[in-house]
């Protein structure tokens, strides 16, 4: 008979019960007594009913079946939780962001996103994790365990998701599509990275210099600038590099590999950027412009050298006489004045020169080549400086002025001849 009376009270916590046997069972919570033991694994339980439920782990018994999909469960509570998949019920709600969850344990795990709590710690490296399952996956880094294998090629993976993504290499499946440009990807993470090209989002920031990056791997590579880390070492000469790609480019010095070829003239190059610079010879493109005088250049390095004309910077100094030069090549040519070295020889007459450019100009005496043409009258010249002097005829420029009488002249030689009128010097 159910009277609702609860005469049996727990002396420890004050809970009351209608039956003495129920109180006795309850007391085992406080005493820790576990009088019911599993004969198979030795686990102890305070209730007989709990032992009976536990035994289903060993027997495989699943007496509770889902009416919708037929899945069987060993616990009634597990079936009730499962049913929420079909009903869409999410009775557990996050107070912070409002997200709903079908299980209380899932809500508890989710809350750690907001609290930052990481209660599961790796005993080997000390890394903390918000979920036990994430720690278990992390441990495979240390153990080397790869429980998920590809049935096509046999490659092993530590994550099930990594195996699923890998399988798409074999199937060619690309289920993740960009809403903006329509590009498809085999991995969701690759799509997320791709979308940042459209949004301009750069969520990864360098703590040292504040630079922003769209990918965490790019930030890691960038950090080597600050740390000086150069983990990629050349087996041939021992040079070390901060980026793997830089090492790969460097190796072409040793192998002589030139994988980038000019479609126009057939020249080969070890780097793509060098080919791109070379192509401007053919296209005439000059994308680098001087902000001061407007001169354009095909290469950024040439613009940087040109800027020294305006800044007056002469970073290369002769260690013999101290003369400064804006170009390293100009210093090298100048040093030959002191050494007397003339490494450039004419194949026709044997004359030697200290500068390659002087040899090239000299060679035109033998070939008759006149590559510099006047746009106005069509006259041809063997030297660029001769063309410049010629242009004064057309533009009327007379830069050489007599200090005595004020007469002006377009050529220095004519000016010098005129000066003899004042000095009474007789020409030779």
UniProtKB/TrEMBL annotation:
Residues of the C2H2-type domain: 8-35, 36-63, 64-91, 92-119, 120-147, 148-175, 176-203, 204-231, 232-259, 260-287, 288-315, 316-343, 344-371, 372-399, 400-427
Q: What is its main location?
A: nucleus
Q: Name one GO molecular function term.
A: DNA binding
What GO terms describe the biological role, i.e. biological process, of this protein? negative regulation of transcription by RNA polymerase II; regulation of cell differentiation
One GO cellular-component annotation of the UniProt record comes to: nucleus
Question: Where, per UniProt, does this protein localize?
Answer: Nucleus
Keywords, sorted A to Z? DNA-binding, Metal-binding, Nucleus, Repeat, Transcription, Transcription regulation, Zinc, Zinc-finger
Which Gene3D superfamilies does this one have?
Classic Zinc Finger (3.30.160.60)
UniProt xrefs under InterPro entries: Zinc_finger_trans_reg (IPR051061), Znf_C2H2_sf (IPR036236), Znf_C2H2_type (IPR013087)
Q: What does this protein do?
A: May be involved in transcriptional regulation.
Family, similarity comment? Belongs to the krueppel C2H2-type zinc-finger protein family.
Q: What name does UniProt use for this protein? A: Gastrula zinc finger protein XlCGF26.1-like isoform X1
What species is this protein from? Acanthaster planci
